[in-house]
Structure prediction request, 689 residues.
Amino acid sequence: MRVSLFVTCIVDQLFPNVGIAMAKVLERAGCELEFREGQTCCGQPAFNTGYRDEARTVAEHFLDVFEGAEHIVVPSGSCASMIAHHFAELLPADKRAHAVETQVWEFSQFLTDVLKIDDFGAALDATATYHDGCHSLREMKIKAGPRKLLEKVRGLKLIELDPPEECCGFGGTFSVKFPEISGSMVRSKVDAIERTGASTVISTDPSCLMQIQGALTRAGSKVRTMHLAEVLASR
Amino acid sequence: MKTPDVTAALADKKLQLAIHTATGRMAERRREIVAQGVMPDYQDIRQHAHNLKKHTLENLDYYLEQLERNVEARGGKVIWAKDAAEACAFVQKLARDKGVKVIVKSKSMTTEEIGLNEHLENDGVETVETDLGEYILQLAGEKPFHIIAPALHKTKEDVSDIFERHLHSQPESTPEGLTMIARKALREKFLEAGLGITGANFLIADSGAVVVVENEGNARLSCSAPKIHVAIGGIEKLIPRAQDLGVFLRLLARSATGQALSVYTSFLAGAKRPGEPDGPEEFYLVLVDNGRTKLLADESKRQSLYCIRCGACLNHCPVYRKIGGYNYPWVYSGPIGKILTPQFKGLHDDPWVPFASSLCGACGEVCPVKIEIPRILLELRADVKKDEGASVERFGFQVWAWLMRHPKLFGRLGSMGTSTMNMLPAVGPLKNWLSQRDLPESPKQSFRDWWKKR
Prediction:
């Protein structure tokens, strides 16, 4: 199956290992990969901050770059949701903005719903917990998929967070416009992670992981963050 | 953009615990009672409620006239108030004309919105809140902290202190004991009052009835003990038929406190009729616009008016649960406040309001009438930016958008940025980021560089 990778700006520039892991997992599953070098960002930072004109030009750029791609796979539920659910709102007259909803897949969703594979022969000796990114959970309706994938990872024990489904407080520019609220939210998240006793926190959203990791290291915690793709690429 | 100072609220451990516990408990009870096994048709009912509100607001003129005819056929009188001043002036004049010195009232966000109590107090009319939470706050001189649990930030020790100070009661440590103190004081007011005011949870067009939902029985007393009953409600509280009420009653208490039904649901249709032993002698219904018709004209944000004031969005909002109800600029707090305030009060005074959200979407998920709060927040953000002139942020996003269309340069500048980010001067957004958490480690190469070399 031909897959076009949209690694997102944040993975490209800050967390390349997530993109590399995603590429490895997809290749192991027999996918033929391409990386279109014209890609940059989905436009969400501008869209969520109210700059619709700026977001629109970036969305158009995305559609130009991914013209003709059959499956676009993204290692972020939030960016995938921006493309799938908000492009049509930004560019109502552009047919591609509507069609892209059926072309774009969040990484775990592509594995479970398109490839229909849940065992990638991964092994990771760890006790972990899983953080549902809000856009993955509520906009992309991703909940069971990542857990199904993690269940098949040898040596991995998963403990659910309590409370479940709570925001990490990132929220894009929210994190710098309202730093104290965002900081307080992520400290609650860190407490919940610590309460599970897990050594690793896993998610499909790199920006949540950036927020959580930043607060974990600030708190001097030994818990590390891993993207789902990195877990599935582990052997 | 100037944002409110939330430092004190976040640092107040007692307050944090109170908010967390109270909202958490309501959220938990809601989750249990709308669970698939308990209420299998919950999602269908939500959609039905949404559709009913949509239909009603799209035909509001028709239903309002029907309501007025039916209220008057039952001997009541309808007063149309285009704004807060008109609504308050009517009640004030009525109280004067009837020689009323004491008014009892039940909990109503609409009366908070129009500032009714202050208005009447200034005219020398004692206006007593009879909902326990509201009564506590009225004595303390505070505003509701939460739409349905106004005093949730007060501990029982706080309440005992307030009662001691204002009612000269003895210290009391149990909620039951405290309730009895308030009950005794309030009973006297009920007997004294010449006029009773209630809100209106629902206004039923085809029967000319006002429906009031409560747990304490104080609303029922407020509208039946005094000789005059005035119900005050926003024009959006309308529903077409009595048979539609079941849909909303199945959602309201479940979403609010997790009760299947609130303790009292009163159907109030006019004054006492000949031969009836009790009830008020006069009935007035004040229908408040106060900005609602302006909002109605905005098709994409109109659904903000579907709100039935259950408070579920507050209980599930991670921001409300941190900053509480007093850091919002108007009477409506939490997610619903974040979409109502800018639309009622305009975008200029507090442009930060729609931005104070991580867009987690929990509010939209639990809203019983399916108001798309996150989508409306995003639209309001765009509205704020449309009105705003040049700014450093706008310039930044313009440069950013240009860069995002130049991938080669983006790749080069990005690598330069990430390899030096831990050495950059901590100013602006970076300073704000670092005030709370660390930056990630600089990667050795970008993904695009790795891809090229592989």
In short: The first strand of chain B starts at residue 77 and ends at 81. The beta strands of chain B are 77-81, 102-105, 126-129, 195-198, 202-204, 209-214, 228-234, 238-239, 264-268, 282-288.
